[in-house]
Amino acid sequence: MSYVEVPGAKVPIRMWTDPAAVEDGAMQQLRNVATLPWIKGLAVMPDVHYGKGATVGSVIAMHGAVCPAAVGVDIGCGMSAVRTSLTANDLPGDLSRLRSKIERAIPVGRGMHDDPVDPGRVYGFPSTGFDDFWSRFDDVADPVKFRRERAGKQMGTLGSGNHFIEFCLDETGSVWLMLHSGSRNIGKELAEYHIGEAQKLPHNQGLVDRDLAVFVSDTPQMAAYRNDLFWAQEYAKYNRAIMMGLFQEVVRREFRKAKVAFDPVISCHHNYVAEERYQGMDLLVTRKGAIRAASGDFGIIPGSMGTGSYIVKGLGNEKSFNSASHGAGRRMSRNAAKRRFSTRDLEEQTRGVECRKDSGVVDEIPGAYKPIERVIDQQRDLVEVVAKLKQVICVKG
Predict the structure, then answer these.
(1) Residues of the chain with pLDDT under 70
(2) What residues make up the catalytic site (predicted)?
(3) In terms of residue numbers, what domain contains 234?
(4) Is 49 a catalytic residue?
(5) Is 80 annotated as a binding residue?
(6) Predicted pLDDT of residue 1
(7) How many domains, in total, are found in the chain?
(8) Strand 13-15 and strand 39-49: pairing?
(9) Which residues contact 207 (CB under 8 A, 6 or more apart)?
(10) How many CB atoms are located within 10 Å of the residue 328 CB?
(11) Residue 180 among known ligand-binding residues
């Protein structure tokens, strides 16, 4: 489908989904965003659903301003994936051992490494930039500086919620490795600190929703936020790179006889801010639950822990600010999913996947998410499908 345009106060709301299918609370959030004085455009992805301040699945383009709550508290959250030389024929009948080895190599949930991971020992990790990145920690917001040791030990860890590590097969039988995570606790604390700082500023006192408080250009508050925002986005990128390297090393050891080779890693943020130019204007584009899909950009759009995912290539549609959805999107809240579904439902909906099937992950059951095939179909003018993946192992926190 192409987009549907809904009137908004300052800009039209371009929606790559049926507006009637969007929950009332999310539609109100979109209308609220469209009232912001600095807004120049708003694009809504087919995975849209209610969030904090701004919906998940929205792309907000502003001139001279940025809204920290519209980035989300997991700054830089995103996906990484890589195709391997393995095929389905290389896999054992029982995948539980491989799942256990992945979980031992990469801490999940609230877990962290005993000591910071030495990137020099991580398979495929970029050889430059990491020391400079950590040297800039001294410039982040003072109230968060005491978290340095924890941030070091959490680098290369998964977290919980909707984060995951998966071992997948595409439709040709090739094995892919895929993971989803962000900036861990340090990103969350930086986000919450700056959201609080923005809400105190005089120009934000008349907004329809205090969670839409913004920083404006050429102010010390904006400079401080941009510094911390871009640092946290780098943290998330390195976090995924270390995890992917650890994951690749597990696979190399487990399939030593096959001498596993890897294609270049595909990686994309889906909670972040980028400086981009549209219609002759320099804009700050916030993607909250959306990926960049400029022409030729590779991206990853996951479904749920039982339905598979898509590798896509962007078509460069400027009406969406060169963006696409970040996943299937939730169709019910976590609490609603826990009330609706049981562990028996989870077992049924994840049949054939080596994964947790206990009450701790019922809120991540496939039935709590929108159908990924429909979400992909609704954005055929934004991306083309390169590969369809189906997980055979899914590690959750």
Answers:
(1) 1
(2) 326 (gmp-histidine intermediate)
(3) 69-283+292-331+369-396
(4) no
(5) no
(6) 61
(7) 1
(8) parallel
(9) 35, 36, 213
(10) 27
(11) yes
